[in-house]
Design brief:
This protein is an alpha+beta fold and 312 residues long. Helix content is 49%, strand content 21%. Strands 2-3-4-5-6-7-8 form a seven-stranded mixed beta sheet, with helices on both faces. A hairpin with a 2-residue loop joins strand 3 and strand 4. Helix 1 crosses helix 6, helix 1 crosses helix 9 and helix 8 packs antiparallel against helix 9. The radius of gyration is 25 Å and the shape is elongated.
C-alpha cells in the first residue's frame, strides 16, 4: 500500500508539472506571437461621435460628467502601435489641474477592451495614472505609478485621482508643460519614452528588418510570468486594495499551486476506478488519493479565502 501511495503522489506531481509546463509554454508562444511594437505610432484624428460603439453610448455618456468636472474636449484619435490592434480614444483635458482623461476602446482580432484613464505629470518627470484597466503593465515603467480601480465609476475615479495629486503635490510640483502640448505630440513623446526605457531595461530589442520592437528572452519570460500571476488571481472584479495587493504579492499564487495539485490527485483517483481493483489495498489507495486531494483543495481554498496576504 505505501508503494502504491508513493506512485500516486509521483504521478500526480508529474501530471501537475506537465500541466504547468503546457500553460507556461502556451503563454510564451502567445507573448512571442502578439508582442510587437512599431518604431513610431500611427496616429490619425477621427470622429467618434458618429460611430456606434458596443456600449451604445460609451463615449457620449461621459461627456457631461467630464465637462461638469472642468474638462474640455480635445479630440478623437485612432492610434496603432501594434500590428492588428487599433486603439480609438476620446481625449479630454483639465488644463488648470493638469489632468488628461482618455476614454479607450482597444480592438484586436478577437477581443475588445474598453477603459478610462486619468493622467497627471509632475515637473520632475514623475507621472501618476488612475485607470479602470485590470491588467498589470507588461513593461517596467520608470517614474510612473498606476492605480487600478476597475470597479469605480468616473466620478469616483476623478475624486481618487485628485486626492493622489494633492498627496504628491506635497513633495513635487504639477507640470503644465505636457497638458498644454498637442495630443499628437503627447502620444509620440510618451510612446518614444516607453520604448527607450524598455530597451534600457532589456525587455525589448529593435528589429531593423521590420522597423519594430520585439521582446528579448528576458522580456518574454518577464511578460509571461506577469500574465501567469494575473491569471492565477481569484476574482476579476477586484476592489482597489485587492488589485494593489495582488499586483505585488507573489505568495498567494504560489500557494494556489497546491490547490491544483489536490485537484490532480482527485482526478487520478477517479480515473483509477476505470480498472477493477486487484486487491483491497489497491481499492483503499484509490480512495485515499481522492480524499487526500479533496482535503488539500479544501484547506488551500480556505487559506486563500481567509488569510490576508501582505506585500513582501
Amino acid at each position: 500500500m505505501p508503494v502504491m501511495i508513493i506512485k500516486i503522489v509521483l504521478i500526480s506531481i508529474a501530471v501537475t508539472l506537465l500541466a504547468m509546463a503546457g500553460r507556461v509554454g502556451f503563454a510564451v508562444l502567445t507573448v512571442l506571437r502578439n508582442i510587437k511594437r512599431y518604431a513610431k505610432p500611427r496616429i490619425e484624428q477621427i470622429d467618434l461621435s458618429s460611430m456606434l460603439d458596443p456600449d451604445g453610448n460609451y463615449y457620449s455618456k461621459y461627456n457631461n460628467i467630464l465637462t461638469s468636472e472642468g474638462f474640455e474636449f480635445s479630440g478623437d484619435y485612432s492610434v496603432i502601435t501594434d500590428p492588428g490592434i487599433e486603439t480609438k480614444m476620446r481625449v479630454f483635458k483639465n488644463i488648470s489641474e493638469s489632468i488628461e482623461a482618455d476614454l479607450y476602446q482597444i480592438q484586436s482580432k478577437d477581443a475588445l477592451k474598453m477603459m478610462i484613464t486619468l493622467i497627471t505629470e509632475f515637473e520632475d518627470g514623475f507621472t501618476i495614472a488612475t485607470s479602470t484597466n485590470r491588467e498589470p503593465s507588461m513593461f517596467k515603467l520608470k517614474n510612473f505609478r498606476i492605480y487600478s480601480l476597475p470597479d469605480k465609476n468616473l466620478k469616483d475615479l476623478i475624486l481618487f485621482h485628485r486626492q493622489k495629486i494633492n498627496e504628491e503635490s506635497k513633495v513635487r510640483k504639477v507640470s503644465q508643460e505636457k497638458i498644454k502640448k498637442s495630443v499628437f505630440e503627447n502620444i509620440e513623446d510618451s510612446y518614444s519614452k516607453q520604448l527607450k526605457e524598455q530597451l534600457e531595461n532589456g525587455i525589448l530589442k529593435y528589429d531593423s528588418a521590420t522597423n519594430t520592437y520585439r521582446p528579448t528572452l528576458y522580456g518574454v519570460l518577464r511578460i509571461t510570468f506577469k500574465m501567469l500571476m494575473f491569471s492565477l488571481e481569484e476574482g476579476r472584479n477586484k476592489s482597489m486594495s485587492d488589485t494593489q495587493i495582488m499586483g505585488s504579492n507573489k505568495r498567494k499564487p504560489f500557494i494556489a499551486f497546491f490547490s491544483l495539485f489536490g485537484s490532480v490527485l482527485i482526478v487520478i483517483g477517479l480515473l483509477s476506478y476505470i480498472k477493477n481493483a486487484e486487491s483491497s489495498a489497491d481499492l483503499y489507495s484509490r480512495l485515499l488519493s481522492i480524499l487526500l486531494g479533496a482535503l488539500i483543495s479544501i484547506i488551500i481554498g480556505y487559506i486563500l479565502k481567509t488569510k490576508k496576504f501582505k506585500d513582501s
